[in-house]
């Protein structure tokens, strides 16, 4: 018997080039310039790039050297995370005026469930526009939004009309929208997976939809089941406003401090292997990967990434860890590295639906 998909109105709000936009907001001399927030040209890594810089191919996690090579006029500024957190709190306070069902993914993006909202407004599209206008008026920054029946489609849609735009994918438009979507635009399909998809003749959602669930699992592991469902508009994950802070992790302290990301990655491979064994022993998986770095001065830094599906495989864990490691160059030599996986599948059993209900007024 088919299980109808819950009818929800989900908004994904994503700030436009958040770190770079804050720097340009606070320093008018930087406005209109190609800007990179990060460590600098010689040793740094780009944490964020302005849209002026993105036109030259400058992207986050790119080395400062390559970024400068692509854009000779690129201006580097050091990140100011306290300032970003201050503005992020203002933005979240706006969200909570509309709903208590807010799930932050990072400082600059969040999901909102406005199916039943505090304003009594039946239109998620209108609410999204109001929120974006409030953010602009109260912070001076622009945001983009995606609106649809679930978190996955809302996330994809928020990137559709960036910057400073929004897109609604109504229930009756979901299947056609996903079929026409380039495979690289699917949330959860990174560069490596995109290339593998291309090799298998999968270039669009329509191509993906032709593959059986068994075929996708055979080629992509557990993520294959995720791909099979989301291309059919099935993604039942609720907006979680109060995540349980349970995790599984492992960490190593080194006899000699590490000074190169190459050596760090080598150690992280072993740590990820140990973590995978622990996860398999407990028969659990998680969505949120956290990289822990303790420096020689004993200060600790953590960087996290939340995936749209549960993972326990070492290769998928390491794909996220590599991205986290290169977000920002380590500020000093490293004495400890750790990896943990949170948002576990033993905390909330996500029920799988096998049909999409397409009658819902947005």
Automatic annotation (TrEMBL):
Positions of the UmuC domain: 10-190
Residues binding Mg(2+): 14, 108
Recorded catalytic activity of this chain's protein: DNA(n) + a 2'-deoxyribonucleoside 5'-triphosphate = DNA(n+1) + diphosphate
Catalytic activity, EC: 2.7.7.7
Example GO molecular function: damaged DNA binding
Essential cofactor(s): Mg(2+)
GO cellular component entries: cytosol
Record site feature (Substrate discrimination), residues: 19
Residue stretches in coiled coil: none
EC class: transferase
Catalytic residues as annotated in Swiss-Prot or TrEMBL: 109
Main location: cytoplasm
Keywords for the protein's UniProt record, in alphabetical order: Cytoplasm, DNA damage, DNA repair, DNA replication, DNA-binding, DNA-directed DNA polymerase, Magnesium, Metal-binding, Mutator protein, Nucleotidyltransferase, Transferase
Cofactor descriptive note: Binds 2 magnesium ions per subunit.
GO biological process entries: DNA repair; DNA-templated DNA replication; error-prone translesion synthesis; SOS response
Subcellular location: Cytoplasm
Assembly: Monomer.
Known role: Poorly processive, error-prone DNA polymerase involved in untargeted mutagenesis. Copies undamaged DNA at stalled replication forks, which arise in vivo from mismatched or misaligned primer ends. These misaligned primers can be extended by PolIV. Exhibits no 3'-5' exonuclease (proofreading) activity. May be involved in translesional synthesis, in conjunction with the beta clamp from PolIII.
Family assignment from sequence similarity: Belongs to the DNA polymerase type-Y family.
Protein name, as recorded: DNA polymerase IV
């Amino acid at each position: 018997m088919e299980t109808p998909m819950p009818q929800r109105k989900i908004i994904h709000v994503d700030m436009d080039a958040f770190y770079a936009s804050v720097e340009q907001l606070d320093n008018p001399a930087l406005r209109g310039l190609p800007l990179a927030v990060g460590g600098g040209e010689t040793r740094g890594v780009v944490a964020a790039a302005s849209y002026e810089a993105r036109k030259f191919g400058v992207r986050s996690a790119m080395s400062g050297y390559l970024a400068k090579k692509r854009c000779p006029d690129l201006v580097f500024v050091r990140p100011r995370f306290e300032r970003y957190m201050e503005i992020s709190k203002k933005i979240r306070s706006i969200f909570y005026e509309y709903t208590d069902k807010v799930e932050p993914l990072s400082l600059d993006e969040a999901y909102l469930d406005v199916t039943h909202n505090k304003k009594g407004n039946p239109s998620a599209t209108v609410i999204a526009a109001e929120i974006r206008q409030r953010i602009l008026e109260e912070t001076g920054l622009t945001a983009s939004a995606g609106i649809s029946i679930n978190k996955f489609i809302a996330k994809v849609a928020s990137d559709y009309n960036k910057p400073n735009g929004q897109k609604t994918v109504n229930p009756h438009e979901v299947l056609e929208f996903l079929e026409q979507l380039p495979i690289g635009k699917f949330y959860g399909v990174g560069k490596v997976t995109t290339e593998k998809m291309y090799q298998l003749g999968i270039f669009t959602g329509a191509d993906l939809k032709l593959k059986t669930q068994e075929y996708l699992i055979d080629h992509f592991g557990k993520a294959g089941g995720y791909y099979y469902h989301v291309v059919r508009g099935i993604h039942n994950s609720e907006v979680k406003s109060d995540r349980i802070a349970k995790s599984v992790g492992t960490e190593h302290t080194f006899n000699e401090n590490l000074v190169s990301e190459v050596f760090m990655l080598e150690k992280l491979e072993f740590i990820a292997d140990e973590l995978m064994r622990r996860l398999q022993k407990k028969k659990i998986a998680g969505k949120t990967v956290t990289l822990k770095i303790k420096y020689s001065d004993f200060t600790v830094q953590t960087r996290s990434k939340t995936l749209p599906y549960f993972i326990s495989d070492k290769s998928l864990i390491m794909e996220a860890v590599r991205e986290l490691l290169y977000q920002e160059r380590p500020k000093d030599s490293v004495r400890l590295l750790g990896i943990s996986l949170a948002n576990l599948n033993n905390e909330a059993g996500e029920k799988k639906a096998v049909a999409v209900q397409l009658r819902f007024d947005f």
